[in-house]
Amino acid sequence: MIEPTTGQPCAATVIFNLPEYRVLSAALTAFGVRRITVESTGVPGCPACGVVSARVKDRRLQRLRDVPLAGAVVVLWRKRRWFCDEPACPRGSFTEATDEVPRRARSTRRLLHALVDAVIRSGRAALEAARAHGVSWWLAQTALDAAAATLPDVDLLAPKRLGIDEHRYRSVRWYRADEASPWVRVEPWMTTIVDLDTGQVLGIVDGRDSTGVGDWLFARPLAWRLGVEVVAIDPSAAFRKALRMWLPRTAVSVDAFHLVQLANQAVTEARQRLSQEIKGRRGRAVDPGWANRRLLLRGAETLSGRGRARLRAVFESDDPTGQLQAAWEAKEQLRTLLASGALEEARDHLRILEGLVEAAPTVETKRLLRTVKRWWNEIEVLITTGATTAKVEANNTAIKNIKRTGRGFRNPDNYRSRILLRSAAQTAA
Ligand SMILES: [Zn+2]
To answer: InterPro entries per the record (predicted)?
Structure first.
């Protein structure tokens, strides 16, 4: 049965295809289990002195976890113990180890790679990947942890443009310390820091206040921080204030998407307020404004002829004060402003926005204009650099998938490492 180590490997060895091993036997047990016995073909070097050994001391069978091969297989390694014949070496004997199965390992490296691949690249849940490979969730998670430990050091990267954005990493929970205490709403937020040029997630920190991000940035080397030219954030005053402290020489850009969201919010709030003031009730399906509430939030340039006609009908029939139309026009003017190609153009659009709000000053339009003016420096950085948090948002979509496949992470560390691994894999691809 044992083939010579030179020349062509036997058919079973070729099919089994485990580097540094050859198949000694392949048998079907009484229970219908396929059992494959392998032996290492590598040169056994003593781990203490490195001298190659030629004398076998003893052999024993070790069970190996391996990838399924056309179904489940039981793999046994006939592992040898060798004498070290180097007289100066304190070690009398040693057990062989291979790259596929390092010392103390019980799984082949190709199995661990397959598990990490299934979870990170194919986006399967760790438990699902484990089941498909006939191993425990624990082993899959250990493989993921080991992969996370080899992630490239963030401090060795030199990102020029960062994006910072928050997301909720699981649903809201209610919590109370004991029977007597009141229930507290717990919103598990995490903040993601992304390299805007590569899209790679550099860090994930707890919470969405400025402390977590501040600590993370402070942990980076000074040269790293000085190398950052632009940071894109959503309009959060806390972040902006804190960024001035952490990255004083870095320009801050505000994300256009989040500003448009604020403008959409102004339209919706105006619609709801007007319904209460004029009709004394909330909007209903019979109200053109309510029926077309989503159309009101669409970008004007994406509207079809029919959509434009419907919108015109809303303003004619369901907007006696003209305030809904004013909010809509302010929203569209802000969108035009944010799409400016140059600062001069943006400043002209700001003057038009000011004119619109002056002509129809409502609670909502005045507040929107105030926000725009408060964030004007950051808007100018946005128009000059084009740095938006869109890449962070894209990652957040990927993160949502991770959350869904993970079916709720109880352990935030597992969650974090999954995101970093996936992002690193995508960046490398
Ligand atoms: Zn030795």
So the answer is: Transpos_ISL3 (IPR047951), Transposase_DDE (IPR002560), Transposase_Znf (IPR029261)
